[in-house]
Design goal:
By secondary structure, this protein is an all-alpha fold. The protein has one domain. Helices cover 79% and strands 0% of the residues. Helix 6 crosses helix 8. The relative contact order is 0.24. The mean pLDDT is 80.
């Protein structure tokens, strides 16, 4: 199963790095489908997001694409709430978590589809720290609760606030490793980590995310990226709905 997990990880991280988000949202249901318990799959996804998007962020920092002042308030609040979400997951029934996951997928996919393309000068350049902090808190809570890293909630909410999609991809790639690793540590403390599975998935994640980040900035139009991500998220939501009912 290791090579299959590696392959899924590599392909998923490549695709989702195109939008600057973690691919745990695909990896976790894939692992569950392969027979891995959900509470073992979630920390795999969190560590995977940490490793794969750290590489993407290093690439963005080297190329001076990252606005640290926008990312910092999201990081601070996501760190505070990620551990709380991971701890709360012990008390939330699996069925409820599954439906939360489905709602999250539908919201994210719809927001990517509905986002209106703007001219460069129309995107906001200010830094609304309160709104960004609330986004970080919500993303951190979901990151811990669902094991997804939070990037797919940060991206659509920042789109709603009017930020440039290119800026959003670099911000999410920068923020997600912090909230993901904090939540991962909580799952580790609770004894839910399968290290062999985690390292195999992370190896694929590093390679795929690095290639995806480079490809997105050099070859692919952002509108195409958003449509790809939206399609994947909505198809996954439909699949999980059939599983939940």
């Amino acid at each position: 199963m290791d090579w299959l997990v590696f392959g899924i990880s590599l392909v998923a991280s490549f695709i989702f790095a195109l939008g600057g988000v973690g691919a745990a949202i695909v990896l976790i249901p894939a692992l569950v489908w392969l027979g891995v318990p959900i509470n073992t799959a979630k920390p795999v996804g969190l560590f995977y997001n940490t490793i794969s998007l750290t590489g993407a962020s290093i690439h963005n920092i080297r190329n001076k694409r990252l606005d640290f002042k926008v990312g910092t308030p999201i990081i601070i609040t996501s760190l505070l709430f990620a551990s709380a979400g991971a701890y709360l997951s012990r008390f939330v029934p699996g069925k409820i978590i599954l439906w939360l996951f489905i709602g999250f997928l539908l919201f994210s996919g719809t927001m990517f589809l509905l986002h209106r393309k703007r001219q460069e000068h129309e995107y906001r350049q200010d830094r609304p720290y309160l709104a960004l902090s609330l986004i970080g808190a919500f993303a951190g809570l979901l990151s811990g609760l669902l094991g997804i890293g939070g990037g797919n909630i940060i991206s659509p909410l920042m789109l709603m606030l009017g930020f440039n999609p290119k800026k959003i991809t670099t911000i999410t790639a920068f923020v997600v490793p912090f909230s993901s690793f904090t939540a991962f540590l909580t799952y580790w403390a609770m004894g839910n980590v399968n290290w062999e599975l985690t390292l195999v998935a992370s190896a694929g994640g590093i390679i795929g995310a690095t290639l995806g980040t480079h490809f997105m900035h050099s070859r692919l139009h952002h509108e195409t990226v958003k449509k790809i991500l939206a399609g994947i998220l909505l198809l996954l939501a439909v699949k999980l709905i059939f599983k939940a009912v």
